[in-house]
Amino acid sequence: MMGIFKRRPRTGDSPSSIGAVISEPTNVNHDIHVSVNAQGELEGLPSAWLRQIGTQITRDEQVNNPLAVKQAVKFYNYSIKKQEKGEMKHIITEPLIDEETKEIDKYMNSKDAHKSKDGNLDDEGNEEPIYVNTINRPETVPAIPPKRTPTTNLKKAPKIPEQLDCLTIDEGTCELRRKSSSDDDILRRKSGQTDEDYIRELKKLCNPGDPNDFYCRSNRDLGTGAMGIVYAATDLQTGQPVAIKDIDMTKQQRKELLLSEIAIMKNFQHKNLVNFLDAFVMYDGHLWVVMELLDGGPLTDVVTETVMKEHHIAAVCHEVLQAIDYLHSRGTIHRDIKSDNVLLSMDGSVKVTDFGFCASVVGNEQRETMVGTPYWMAPEVVTRQKYGKKVDIWSLGIMIVEMLDGEPPYLREPPLRALYLITANGRPKIIRWGELSYNLRDFIDRCLQVDVDQRATAEELLKHEFLNVRSELKSLTPLIKAAKKMLHKA
């Protein structure tokens, strides 16, 4: 969550003391032409960006790898801007990756690119609002990131409508901005759809009955985010625990996005995904989305509190890879594989979560850092080269490092510096490399190839010899219990 602090009018300020009001210039284009001078330093970046770089990337690093610096700070600032807009995470396909890459390039030429999110001056030295990241400030060493959330997709992912794009361009200023409600009205008129139409279509996808006849919802709050509050509940027929996400549809401008994702998730069912179970449109304009709930908690607890053997790691990888392969076969990219998004049940079952906004069932969505979770990101996420499904394989490799060392590489670094190190260094060093078996080292090698063409697919990794050493899933139960005891969650 970010706080915004602005300069307040000083005592004594008046129209006469302030002087004539001068309107902002129009048709301004902030082109950014970046070059490297004879000393190997970057020239042409916004001064606000240079101030960020100066606090987190050394002079030698700037000289030796200026391109990595440019790519990291560009992606970092775009990500901050996107988070400020409060945009919802939704199901990701490769065409949407291409759209995002274009957005980042457009952002480079926007007025906002010349504003610092870490300082209070723009390029001209004017006072700017100060954006304070209360979760993971760049000037401090971050603690282990908080827990995060879930998602899903379908047999053949339908094309996401173009109007789901949350950004538009101001002609003349080249500024990216959030679509206003009037923009949405225009889009609805063009498509012939009104809010009532979307809700009518949504009801066709939902259970027409009373949810209280199917589920007993408790008052236990599992997490609160931009999309709603998540509650623990019990399936009255099976007695199984479930999660219910309560979404106030009157506060959601993008009702077509709700419609699209529920249609997709209803067709996504896999034993290694946190699955969509049911949905109800309530009389008060609320939408209840029912998802599976696992009682063992996130893999993060096990990773940080216990020592995982290779057979445990192989068991988890086997289950996670099946989920990734399922998503990839349906044209979907998870883009956030990490221990926080792998949930466990007390019997050792392993399920992947967090791949679409409706499926967020644990944790607090607002507790993400400004760039999501950069520590698990593949280099091509930042460089935008050959960016596709294999980003999930890189993240799996980083998650293996988590299971070995208790945390991913660079976790103690601020996000901007982590992005630079990922881009500049490529594959990170692994502390316990010499202690690992040949098969595990080879498995990690196949995951952490910087060259995307050399990196394995999920289908290929499912055939790897390392997975043959996996133990039964119930072998994870003692680790789950030990972690709960250590964290007083029993």
UniProtKB/TrEMBL annotation:
Gene3D superfamilies: CRIB domain (3.90.810.10), Phosphorylase Kinase, domain 1 (3.30.200.20), Transferase(Phosphotransferase) domain 1 (1.10.510.10)
Subcellular location field: Cytoplasm
Annotated GO MF terms: ATP binding; protein serine/threonine kinase activity
Pfam families: PBD (PF00786), Pkinase (PF00069)
SUPFAM superfamilies associated with the record: Protein kinase-like (PK-like) (SSF56112)
Protein's name in the database: non-specific serine/threonine protein kinase
Keywords (A to Z) from UniProt: ATP-binding, Cytoplasm, Kinase, Nucleotide-binding, Serine/threonine-protein kinase, Transferase
EC number per UniProt: 2.7.11.1
Residues involved in ATP binding: 245
The keyword Transferase is annotated on this UniProt entry: yes
PANTHER family: NON-SPECIFIC SERINE_THREONINE PROTEIN KINASE (PTHR45832:SF21), SERINE/THREONINE-PROTEIN KINASE SAMKA-RELATED-RELATED (PTHR45832)
The protein's enzyme class: transferase
Domain Protein kinase: from-to ranges: 216-467
SMART domains: PBD, S_TKc
Organism for this UniProt entry: Tribolium castaneum (Red flour beetle)
